[in-house]
Specification:
With 394 residues, the protein is an alpha/beta fold. It folds into two domains: 200 residues, Glycogen Phosphorylase B (Rossmann fold); 169 residues, Rossmann fold. It contains 15 helices and 15 strands. It has a seven-stranded parallel beta sheet, sandwiched between helices. The chain has a six-stranded parallel beta sheet with strand order 12-11-10-13-14-15, with helices on both faces. It starts with 14 loop residues before the first strand and ends with a helix.
C-alpha cells in the first residue's frame, strides 16, 4: 500500500476590524495606544482594518484604513463625528470579513459598528478609553452625565467584552451595571522613554538651568483640570523662584492659561525623540486631571525617571502607589497639589527614592505582554461566541 502524504493546514490569520474616532498619528493618547496595537498585533500575524472619520494619507497607513463621512465636532474642531448608520462602511467590512469587531469610541460610528456586529453575529468588543460622563461637569451640561451613563450602559452591554485600562475605572463601570468587563492596562516603551535621554543642553536652551522643572504633557482642555495646576504653580511661585512650569500640548485653553501665568513655558505639540528628551530633562510630572481612564503620559513620565504628582482619581490612582511610586493629591485641591509638589522638591532623598520606584514600576509595564493578553482575549471571545451560537442552534 502506498503511503499517503498530507500537508499541514495553516490556520487562517485572525482578522480584527477596528472603529475609532480618529487615527491621526499622535493626536491623543487613544491613537498612540492604537498604533501600538497595530504594531504588536501585526507581529502576531493578525490582519487589521480601521474605520475612522480621520485617517492619514494612504502612504502613511501601516494597515488599511477607511475614512467614513463625518462632520466637525462642534466643541472641538480637531475631532469629527461620523455620519450615523452602517451604509458608509458595511461593504468594505463584509469584504474584509472580520473575526472580531473592536470599537474604541462610543460615538455614532462605534454604535453603528456594534449594531452591525449584532445583526451579523460577529463577536464585538470595546475599550473604555475616555471617561465621557465626567466631561459633562466641565462643559456646564451636568444633566448630560446621567444620560451618558444610560447610553454607555446600553452600548457596552451589547458587547462581548469591555476592556478597561485601570482598576478604579473598572470598579466604577461595574457600579454602573456595565459588563462583562476585563482589565487590560496599557504599556510603555522604556527605550523611547528613558532617563538616558536627559539633556542639560535642552534645559539651558529653555532657560531652565538650576530650576526644578514641573512638566505637563497632554491636551490643553478644561477636563484636564489645568486651572488647578496653574493656580498651584502660582501659589508656589509667590514664595520661591526655583521652579518652572512647562506645558507640552495644545488645545482651546492655551490663551486662558497663558493669561493666568505668563511665565509658563508653552512648547506646543511634541513627539518622537524631542518628547523623550523633554520628559527626561524635567524633574516632576504634574497631572491634575480627574477624568483619566489610564493616563499614558504618567507611565511615560515614570519610565523617564520623573516623580509624578497627580490627582487621586480614576486612572491616575491606578498607576500610583502613594509615596512609593509618586504622590496623589486630593482632586481639584489647589493647596494639596501645591504642597505635594513642594514636599517632593524639598526632600532630595525622598525624590530619588520615588523616582527609582517609579522607574521600576514602569519597566514592568511591557507593551508586548499587554498586546499578548489582548490577542489571547480575542481568541477567547471568538471561541465563546461560537460555542454560544452552537448551543442556540442545538
Amino acid at each position: 500500500m502506498s503511503e499517503i502524504l498530507t500537508m499541514p493546514v495553516e490556520a487562517k490569520p485572525m482578522k480584527i476590524a477596528f472603529f475609532a474616532g480618529t487615527m491621526k498619528p499622535g493626536q491623543d493618547g487613544v491613537t498612540r495606544v492604537l498604533y501600538r496595537w497595530i504594531e504588536g498585533l501585526r507581529e502576531r500575524g493578525v490582519d487589521q482594518m480601521f474605520f475612522s472619520p480621520i485617517v492619514p494619507a494612504g502612504t502613511h497607513q501601516p494597515v488599511p484604513m477607511i475614512r467614513v463621512p463625518s462632520v466637525t465636532f462642534p466643541w472641538y474642531r480637531d475631532y469629527r463625528v461620523a455620519m450615523p448608520g452602517t451604509r458608509h462602511f458595511e461593504d468594505a467590512l463584509r469584504t474584509f470579513a472580520p473575526d472580531v469587531i473592536h470599537i474604541n469610541s462610543p460615538c455614532s460610528l462605534g454604535y453603528a459598528a456594534v449594531q452591525f456586529a449584532r445583526r451579523n453575529k460577529i463577536p464585538v468588543v470595546a475599550t473604555y478609553h475616555t471617561h465621557f460622563p465626567r466631561y459633562a461637569r466641565y462643559y456646564r451640561v451636568t444633566a448630560f452625565e446621567n444620560l451618558m451613563w444610560a447610553y454607555l450602559r446600553k452600548l457596552y452591554n451589547l458587547c462581548d467584552r469591555l476592556y478597561v485600562p485601570s482598576q478604579p475605572i473598572l470598579q466604577e463601570l461595574s457600579l454602573q451595571r456595565i459588563r462583562p468587563l476585563e482589565f487590560l492596562p496599557h504599556g510603555v516603551d522604556t527605550v523611547e522613554f528613558n532617563p538616558l535621554h536627559r539633556s542639560d543642553a535642552w534645559r539651558r536652551e529653555n532657560g531652565l538651568a538650576g530650576k526644578h522643572v514641573l512638566l505637563y504633557v497632554g491636551r490643553l482642555v478644561a477636563e484636564k483640570d489645568l486651572d488647578i495646576l496653574v493656580e498651584a504653580y502660582r501659589s508656589l511661585r509667590r514664595s520661591r523662584s526655583d521652579i518652572a512650569l512647562v506645558l507640552v500640548g495644545d488645545g482651546p485653553m492655551h490663551d486662558a492659561l497663558r493669561a493666568m501665568a505668563p511665565d509658563i513655558i508653552f512648547l506646543g505639540y511634541r513627539s518622537g525623540s524631542e518628547l523623550s528628551r523633554i520628559y527626561a530633562s524635567s524633574d516632576l510630572f504634574v497631572f491634575p486631571s480627574t477624568t483619566e481612564t489610564f493616563g499614558n503620559v504618567i507611565l511615560e513620565a515614570m519610565a523617564s525617571g520623573l516623580v509624578p504628582v497627580c490627582a487621586d482619581a480614576g486612572g491616575s490612582r491606578g498607576n500610583i502607589t502613594p509615596w512609593v511610586t509618586g504622590v496623589l493629591a486630593r482632586p481639584r485641591d489647589i493647596r494639596d497639589f501645591a504642597e505635594g509638589i513642594a514636599a517632593v522638591i524639598d526632600d532630595q532623598r525622598k525624590r530619588t527614592e520615588l523616582s527609582e520606584q517609579a522607574l521600576v514600576y514602569a519597566r514592568r509595564q511591557s507593551w508586548d505582554a499587554v498586546i499578548g493578553r489582548l490577542h489571547t482575549s480575542y481568541a477567547q471571545v471568538i471561541a465563546e461566541v461560537r460555542a454560544a451560537t452552537t448551543r442556540r442552534a442545538a
